[in-house]
Amino acid sequence: DIQMTQSPSSLSASVGDRVTITCQASQDISNYLNWYQQKSGKAPKLLIYDASNLETGVPSRFSGSGSGTDFTFTISSLQPEDIATYYCQQYDNLLYTFGQGTKVEIK
Amino acid sequence: EVQLVESGGGLVQPGGSLRLSCAASGLTVSINYMSWVRQAPGKGLEWVSVIYSGESTYYADSVKGRFTISRDNSKNTLYLQMNSLRAEDTAVYYCARVRSATNFDYWGQGTLVTVSS
User: Fold this and answer.
1) Taking CB atoms and an 8 Å cutoff, what residues of chain A touch B102?
2) Residues A24-72: pLDDT tens digits?
3) Residue B41 touches partner A, C-beta closer than 8 Å
4) Using the 8-state DSSP alphabet, how is residue A55 labeled?
5) CA–CA separation, A82 vs A88, rounded Å?
6) How far is A55 from chain B (nearest CA, A)?
7) Please, how many CA atoms are within 13 Å of residue B104, restricted to the half-sphere of its CB?
8) pLDDT tens digit string along A7-17?
């Protein structure tokens, strides 16, 4: 099975900062990589699909890149409402795996 | 508007059984890939099971042989039958639509399952 290594596990940044989260797959997953935002007590929300496609209605400050085994998620200018935990998720061979999550806080 | 509403969670003893339901509106369960994802208290997300638009079903190793995913097309409802429950199955269980077989675009609000004596 494919393993996903997401880092960092948590980060603290100031409003307006650029925030970057990485996710590494244990083997090539092409572009089958998605990013979710989960706010406290809520269901996850899909932000980025197929590595770099912005889900409809999601602010353009969120972006994703990468292919193969290395992927990056970026918030270009952190906003107070972005406080949440972010997860990557891969699909391969009928199985799905989530990364461990990154908790984003405001400094 | 798509809505997924889970129910059936609760407190169950180790070794017991529980059936979760996910009632869908705004989408047709029978022609969509549907999945269950869980989240233990304070932990990350864990994929549990998927049912494809045929009858193919797949499971995480942690639940294989104990959980069964199914659907009732007449009720437009997804189910998760959970048997031989263990303490480590304690989690909020979410149902989700699987889009393009690869991502989860609609989620329910979740239902809490607690396995404890």
Assistant:
1) 32, 34, 49-50, 91
2) 999 999 999 999 999 999 999 999 999 999 999 999 999 999 999 999 9
3) no
4) P
5) 16
6) 9
7) 33
8) 999 999 999 99
